[in-house]
Structure formats: C-alpha cells, structure tokens
TrEMBL record:
Domain of life: Bacteria
Keywords: Signal
Signal sequence range: 1-22
Name of protein: NIPSNAP domain-containing protein
Taxon lineage: Bacteria, Pseudomonadati, Bacteroidota, Flavobacteriia, Flavobacteriales
Length: 143
C-alpha cells in the first residue's frame, strides 16, 4: 500500500510540474524560408549516358540561355537511385500556385530555340523520359 501511495505521489508531482511549466502555444512562421524541390531519378539500364547527353545538350543550355540558375546535381555511387537534382524554389512555396512559373516559360522558350521548335522541344523531353525508370519528387525547407 505504501508503494502505491509513493507512486501516486510521484505521479501527482510530475503532472503538477508539467502543468506549471507548460506555456501557451502560439502560431510561429518561418523567417525567410528557403524551399527546394528535390527529384530522385533512376534511369533504365544502360540509358543514363543517353539521358545525360540530353541534359547537357538541351536542359543545361536552356538554363544558361534563359538566365536560370542550374539545379544542384548529385550522382549516387550507392543506393536505389542514380541521381538527385535539387532546384531552388525562387518564390518559395508560392511556386506551387503556378501551373507554369515565369522561369518555366523562359526555359521552355529556350528549349524550343535549341530543339528547332516547340514540338521538337517536347519530343526531346519525351525522349529523355523514356530513359527514366523512376522519378520521385519531394519538397523540403533548407535550414
């Protein structure tokens, strides 16, 4: 019986301390958050080189010609994916409210110039995606 009283006393003491130290919860917004879109890519067997050729000859050149910052790219040595591509979201989470961002439009216009027209640019993008086995996209906030 003494043990039960001791346990109940300690429990009461713990709960009392917790209630005294608890603070009222208030809303808090991140100050100047930096949002990024991350895409994990796995290429079909023996297709990474062909995909990288399209990236270098078209996608990277379209970035440069449009004055858009190139994404950060990581090539995996191990794991399930071949590549991680990280794009800065210039307008932060507001970017998600666009069907096509201003930078996307500039980039597509430059792709059309490089490929010889909008249809050929879309065909080049379609070709790239035939080399992709898996495309997983995430959004994250940099600390």
């Amino acid at each position: 019986m003494r043990t039960i009283r001791t346990i109940l006393g300690l429990l009461f003491l713990f709960c009392s301390i917790h209630l005294v130290t608890a603070q009222e919860m208030t809303a808090k917004k991140y100050e100047n958050p930096n949002w990024v879109q991350m895409v994990y890519i796995k290429f079909k067997p023996m297709k990474k080189d062909a995909a990288m050729g399209i990236i270098q000859e078209y996608f990277a050149k379209a970035d440069k010609n449009a004055g858009i910052e190139e994404p950060t790219v990581y090539h995996f040595a191990t794991g399930d994916h071949d590549m991680l591509v990280v794009w800065e979201m210039e307008e932060g989470i507001e970017t998600l409210n666009y069907e096509m961002t201003p930078n996307d439009a500039k980039w597509m216009n430059e792709m059309a110039k490089l490929a010889g027209g909008p249809d050929k640019a879309m065909a080049k993008m379609d070709e790239f995606f035939t080399y992709v086995d898996l495309w997983e996209s995430s959004i994250a906030r940099k600390e």
